[in-house]
Design goal:
The protein has 174 residues and is of the alpha/beta class. It has a single domain (2-166), classed as HAD superfamily/HAD-like (Rossmann fold, 3-Layer(aba) Sandwich), CATH 3.40.50. It is built from 8 helices and 6 strands. It has helices spanning 2-9, 43-54, 68-77, 89-100, 117-122, 134-139, 152-163, 167-172; strands at 14-17, 58-62, 81-83, 107-110, 125-128, 142-143. It has a 6-stranded parallel beta sheet, with helices on both faces. Helix 6 (134-139) links the parallel strand 5 and strand 6. Helix 2 runs parallel beside helix 7. The longest helix has 12 residues, at 43-54. It starts with a helix and ends with a helix.
């Protein structure tokens, strides 16, 4: 699986991510009615996103839920394409590819649960955290060695940059 996935990763120009269960561990923290929900994001995932962007690989978010916390985090990371409230992630990804003029082979998608399968079928590189549900794991080209919210996105960023022969150069900039 890794050899074929690495080959697919060579042509990636866009990484599209689900949020709950990918950028977070899937746990939702609710406050009192007057306060919004909170979401814990992993700082290593954030740096992985920045590394992709530094190498001119665009990052987008496609999520079925809507969250002010996500808008804030996306803004901090410079992610300008944030598609919220879209249950049909396959059609959302298709629209995104059309808008950006990319082919399916140029996009990696990371998701963790059944609503992500439509995007999996379209993406050139379908990926998931290691704690994704079994049907998603079975469809994945590459499975991160870490769970969602605990560095899975960073592992994906490192995998793509390594496959493209760029990871060592990026590391040397630090």
């Amino acid at each position: 699986m890794t050899g074929r996935a690495a080959q697919k990763a060579e042509s990636i120009k866009l990484v599209a991510l689900d949020v709950d269960g990918v950028m977070t561990d899937g746990t939702l923290f609710y406050r009192a009615m007057s306060e919004p929900e909170t979401k814990p994001f992993n700082i290593k995932d954030g740096l992985g996103i920045k590394l992709l962007q530094r190498c001119d690989i665009d990052v987008a978010i496609i999520t079925g839920r809507s969250s002010e916390a996500l808008e804030r985090r996306a803004g901090e990371l410079g992610i300008t394409t944030v598609i919220q409230g879209r249950e049909d992630k396959g059609s959302a990804l298709e629209e995104l590819l059309t808008a950006k003029g990319l082919s399916a082979a140029e996009v990696a998608y990371m998701g963790d649960d059944l609503p992500d399968l439509g995007a999996f079928r379209l993406a050139g590189l379908a990926t998931c955290p290691n704690d994704a549900v079994e049907p998603v794991r079975e469809c994945a080209d590459w499975i991160a060695p870490l769970p969602g919210g605990a560095g899975a996105v960073r592992a994906l960023a490192d995998f793509i940059l390594q496959s493209q022969g760029r990871l060592s150069d990026v590391i040397r900039t630090f």
